[in-house]
């Protein structure tokens, strides 16, 4: 544990945070390259070399690219990464690109791609807008009370479809170049002129169809197709204006970072077309490099501008849990400063006009500048500050801690749980209209086990520090949500980590914080669930396939992060002294290297059930945290 703590201390940034690679997805880099190309730009030489190396490193044996670095090939990412490499100057005769073509051509090329791929290609003029299911901007003009008003979509989804609507409404398209003309000839199994675009709208290769298009969605698409033929010009102009105003709102609230890498690129392209060389474009270009990550496996576009706040809050908790905070005072002091510096202090400008929830008091996943605070990031930030308080290392003033609590309370859903950035706004049936093909659960921000547990834990910690705080009812409702979501097998499904081990760790920790005692049937079932999935060698192992198939799927090896989650959950249920826990701890200890680190293993993060994402600090945070939980129980 001492060596593990030293590793954490050594890898802290000067600003007190932990900052690392947040890669994994393989659809972000090509969108970035395509966006630059539409603007007549290209990555600088170092970035270009790094990106090419990254794509080479992650091409699958069959010649394609997966949705992320670990998954099987999709047409979506294979075609986009092929195009990105061509745009960065790789020749069509390059053997790896020849292999890629051999993979995607029999699957229809762009015609088989998931819908976002088709959109990006349309932007480049490599796919006809007639072949897209319509994404008109007009829904933004509908009355807000409608259950399907776009402001009710999950913020990540609506912030991607917002610039898409503007670009679609304008049929925005890159200036044609000889290179684009040539690439267009390479992409299709038949001649471009012979493509039946209407038919192409409904086509998607089996590899890309994770979320099937429902009858409901197909009906809406048909209706929108008819609307597109008759849409009034004046209405379109007004809708485009509304979209542009909302895009400006997003840019300003996020200091031009935008909520994520996709709308970051699309918004930049929007401004390039709306006001070429204007101040908006300049402001955007300055913030583009924030998303770039140069790593051992090349250069990639990160999934977020960073995961700093999240990692720092966890690092603090792991260090304090180890019971020897004294030895890590400097590290914790710096972390405390970082937490202080990144809390959001004000609501964004005209929040309601821009469909934004008030943000004062919240913590984002990354940095204050990002401007989108999240329920569980706020909860973990608050928990960390409250742990630092008795050590004299908390820097956040009382009233700002109270604002964090207010922020958390303002996000609780009617079902007692917490979603991510907002209260649930849309009905669950909106999921039937998910048009993305490759992702699940992108339409509605509904309650999650992880967010709910984190908020319950934070409120409990707050009540311990300030016994007069009126948070009892919120806690009780959260606990009730956690109870209700336990599956018959005793586990909980996680959404943002792989998968049942993550969900169960959160659920159990929240329930115990909320007052459940060892011996409670809920905890006994959870413990039995975990024990049933322990491997011969004492470890636990879960892969991304767990999230996709919604049942526990093991990999060939034990994973230190999965084992840590399982061990922490077991300890919380009261089974920390069981034989199962002993064997798990022994495995985890034996796996630590002489340098204090745990060796690399498959990605432990996930989103929207299908895409893996890398959390750089998890292998440094969770194993020592788990070991110390166990150590404390034993002493
Ligand atoms: C994240 C990153 C952080 C993550 C946690 C805080 C860990 C989680 O507990 C709540 C959900 C959240 C905020 C989250 C949601 C989905 C994100 C934003 C991501 C996994 C990072 C990238 C991903 C985003 C959706 C990627 C772009 C793709 C789309 C489908 C829009």
TrEMBL record:
Organism, as annotated: Corallococcus praedator
**Gene3D superfamilies attached here?**
1.50.10.20
Q: What are the UniProt keywords, alphabetically?
A: Repeat
Family assignment? Belongs to the terpene cyclase/mutase family.
Squalene cyclase N-terminal domain residues are 2-256
Domain Squalene cyclase C-terminal per the UniProt entry, residue ranges = 307-630
Q: Does the keyword section mention Repeat?
A: yes
Could you tell me which InterPro entries the record lists for this protein?
2-3-oxidosqualene_cyclase, SQ_cyclase_C, SQ_cyclase_N, Squalene_cyclase, Terpenoid_cyclase/PrenylTrfase
- Name of the protein: 2,3-oxidosqualene cyclase
Pfam families xrefs: SQHop_cyclase_C, SQHop_cyclase_N
Pathway linked to the protein: Secondary metabolite biosynthesis; hopanoid biosynthesis
